[in-house]
Amino acid sequence: MILRRAMPALAILGSLTPTALAGDAAARKVIGFSPDGAYFAFEQYTMVYEDEASFSDYVIVDTLNDRFVTGTPIRVLIRGDDGLDEKKARAGALAKAKPLLDRFRIGEPGTRIESKPSMDLDDIGIYQINQQPMAKSLELPLPDGRKARIAVSRHPIATVMCNGMGGTGAPGKAMGYGVKLTLKVADGPPIVLQHDKALPKSRRCALEYGIAEAYLHKAGDGVLTLAALIEYSDNEDHHAGPNRRFMAVTKRLPKP
């Protein structure tokens, strides 16, 4: 479902109760891994609610150290009212990302492990409509027969000023939350994949986190790489409610 600007969004808003929330929800497209599993990429995109704009982000992660590849994320923001903003933003972002995707030969899909996201991962639109709770854990059946599990939690970092929290276009105070993601393989001790001590600018107004889905890639030498796609609600550019965005946490898994 892709919501266009005028009547569809307004009609849905008119059906909301006075206490309902309405932010914008990004969708995701997983590009995949490089053949050796050293790089992982995905796209997130949406139409910005109550604004004549759309954006597309291409995120490329170096899985050896769980860091963005230099020059990414790549964002293209298109403003206009011709109904083609989304297509233009996505095409523009892909054109900018393609040299890196080609250099690292990113495109191997890996094995998807389905979770229970708060909304359909292929839909953009108004967040909180038919929203479900975010998944806090996910079982990972490894190809070598071992069982693994990832779990996510949040913790407060700092009170921050977020655009829209004080009313339309006005800043207001909100708590920014960090994420902790842990991995447990078989009977081994938990491995902390990410534990925020501070928040990057892009997530300074993050509110809640959940596991949207995960991917496992097996390289030719047998090395397994995990990419956990985390969905989070974000109070930055708050539109009568938080927005949905995505991030990836990656890890080369220990051998048996």
If you had to describe this structure to a student in words, what would you say it looks like?
This protein is mainly beta. It has one domain (7-252). 11% of the residues lie in helices and 47% in strands. The protein contains 2 helices and 15 strands. It has helices at 7-15, 85-103; strands at residues 23-25, 27-33, 39-48, 53-62, 67-68, 74-79, 111-114, 125-127, 137-141, 147-163, 171-185, 191-195, 206-218, 224-234, 243-252. The strands form 4 sheets. Strands 2, 3, 4, 5 and 6 form a 5-stranded antiparallel sheet that branches. A 4-stranded antiparallel sheet has the order 7-13-14-15, with no helix packed on it. Strands 9-10-11-12 form a 4-stranded antiparallel sheet, with no helix packed on it. A hairpin with an 8-residue loop joins strand 14 and strand 15 (243-252). Mean pLDDT is 87; it is low at 1-21.
Which of globular, elongated, flat, extended, rod-shaped describes the shape?
globular
User: Rounded to an integer, what's the Rg over CA atoms?
Assistant: 18 Å
The percentage of residues in β strands lies in: over 45%
Please work out how many helical segments DSSP would assign: 2
Please estimate the helix content.
10-25%
Low-confidence stretches: 1-21
Q: What structural class should be given to the helix and strand makeup?
A: mainly beta
Mean of residue pLDDT values: 87
Q: In sequence order, what are the helices and strands, one letter per element?
A: HEEEEEEHEEEEEEEEE
Mind summarizing the main beta sheet? Answer: 5 strands, antiparallel
Number of domains: 1
How far apart, in Å, are the first and last alpha carbons?
43 Å
Tell me the total number of β-strands.
Answer: 15
